[in-house]
Amino acid sequence: MTDQFEIKAAVKKDVSLILSFIKELAEYEKLLHEVVTTEKILEETLFGEKPYAEVVIGYLNHQPVSFALFFHNFSTFLGRPGIYLEDLYVKPEARGKGIGQKMLAYLARLAKSRNCGRLEWWVLDWNEDAIGFYQRLGAKPMDEWTVYRVTDKALDDLAASFETS
C-alpha cells in the first residue's frame, strides 16, 4: 500500500490536536516549560472573531502527523504581504518521508496564490538537521539580522511608557 498524504486547513474542533502538536514541538526544542497557551486561548486566537494565525494539518494515511502555524506579515520594501511560518512540526515516526518538504511546498504555493513576496521562518541555531533541510530547499539564512523581542515585564513597562496626552 502506498502512503497517502494530504494537507487540510485546521478547524475549531482541531484545537486540542493543535495544542498537542505545539507541546510536542516545544518538548523537542527543550522549551516545554515556556508553553502557557491553552485550548481556550487557541480557540479564541485562531478561530475567534479576529483570527491572528492559520493552521494546516498534514495527514499520513488519515492520521495527523504534522502541522504548520503561520500568519501574514508585510514587507514595506516589496509593498506586499508575506507568510511567516511560526511553527512547522513533523512527528518523529513520520520523518524522512518528505512530509516537511510537502508542508513547505504547500505554504509556498499558498504564498504565491496570495501574491506574497516571501515565505520566511526562524530556526534554532542548534537544530542542524532543520538547517540542512532548509538549505537543501534553497532557503537562505538572514545572518545580517538580529531578532529582538520584548516580553513580560519589559513589554508591560514599554507599553506603560506611552503617554497619551
Give a short summary of the structure:
The chain has 165 residues and is α+β, with helices and mostly antiparallel strands. It is 34% helix and 24% strand.
Describe this structure in words.
By secondary structure, the protein is of the alpha+beta class. The chain has one domain: Aminopeptidase, CATH 3.40.630. The protein has helices spanning 15-28, 39-47, 99-113, 128-136, 152-160; strands at residues 5-9, 54-60, 63-75, 80-90, 119-121.
Helix-strand blueprint:
Blueprint: E1 5-9, H1 15-28, H2 39-47, E2 54-60, E3 63-75, E4 80-90, H3 99-113, E5 119-121, H4 128-136, H5 152-160
Parallel strand pairs: 4-5
Antiparallel strand pairs: 1-2, 2-3, 3-4
Alpha carbon gyration radius: 17 Å
Shape: globular
- Name the CATH superfamily assignment: Gcn5-related N-acetyltransferase (GNAT)
The secondary-structure class comes to alpha+beta
* Count of helical stretches: 5
CATH architecture group name: 3-Layer(aba) Sandwich
Order of helices and strands: EHHEEEHEHH
Measured between the Cα atoms of the first and last residue, the distance is 69 Å
Largest sheet: spatial strand order: 1-2-3-4-5
Mean pLDDT: 95
Provide the CATH top-level class.
Alpha Beta
Beta-strand segment tally: 5
CATH fold node name: Aminopeptidase
Strand content: 15-25%
- Helical content, roughly? 25-40%
Which ranges are low-confidence, i.e. pLDDT below 50, for 5 or more consecutive residues? none
Number of domains: 1
Largest sheet: 5 strands, mixed
